[in-house]
Design a protein that fits this description.
The structure holds two protein chains of two kinds. The longest helix of chain A has 13 residues. By secondary structure, chain A is α+β, with helices and mostly antiparallel strands. Chain A is built from four helices and five strands. Chain B is an alpha+beta fold. Chain B is built from three helices and five strands. In chain B, strand 3 and strand 4 form a beta hairpin. Chain B is elongated, with a radius of gyration of 16 Å. Classes of the chains: A alpha+beta, B alpha+beta. The interface between A and B is medium-sized, with 31 and 31 residues. Strand 2 of chain A pairs antiparallel with strand 2 of chain B, so a sheet runs across the interface.
Amino acid sequence: VNTEAVGKTYPPTVYAVGREKIKEYAFAVGETNPLHLDVDAARAAGYKDVVAPPMFAVVYAAPSVTPALFDPEVGINFAMMVHGGQEFVWGPLVVAGDEITTTVSVKSIETRAGNGFFVFESQSVNQDGETVCTGTWTNIVRGVSQ
Amino acid sequence: VNAGDAIPELKTTPDRFLTVRYAGASGDFNPIHIDEDFAKQVGLPGRILHGLWTMAQVARAQTEAAGGPQALQRLAVQFRGMGLPEAEVEVTGEVREVRDGVAVIDTRAVQNGKAIIRNAEAEVRLPTIQE
């Protein structure tokens, strides 16, 4: 594998969080908590609008992560790629109306037992400068040469 | 909450069209998740679940156990094998330790007797007032 892309950082993307998108996501993953679905319930609980489920991070981070995965300088062979692991660390909850800026970098590229490990890190910050989520995305490419 | 306590099991069966809805909701339209013919052409048994959908079930098991989304501070998972629509997914977990008001939970998602998410670790903030 070529490790020259390690440390590379991609231009940030901004995602405007919408109430209906949160509901669509919540239904798709089976969330029933009214905080995600009912603006009155969310406001009664002290939030300014419906609350995104924590895993909604994949939605607001995706516009930044996807171009990094496809970067020819990283050189992932998609036919042999599997999503090996994922970590998220969350800060304050994201609610509808937030604008989330995500920056992605290449954290590491390594070969282990003939497989390539491509690790990306995403940092997502809200309009108030608070880090709402840090993601570590591990993709494994089977059968790479040294 | 003490070390060794189990969290309530979460059981859910993704229906036949779940992967299509999740593709739209998440923006991940990889055809291995939504096109039966394509999936078989690349050697899969059929359309497979999005790993991040399954991770969302592991996350939901934690937030439902802890009383809401504000409790989940961290979740790390390893994906293994592949999940399929129309078969039950079961999330289980046990508290490994409690430190500084945060429970560390070992958790996993199993389908047809195989872990499709394994070695998962969640950190969940406990409510300040407990019985």
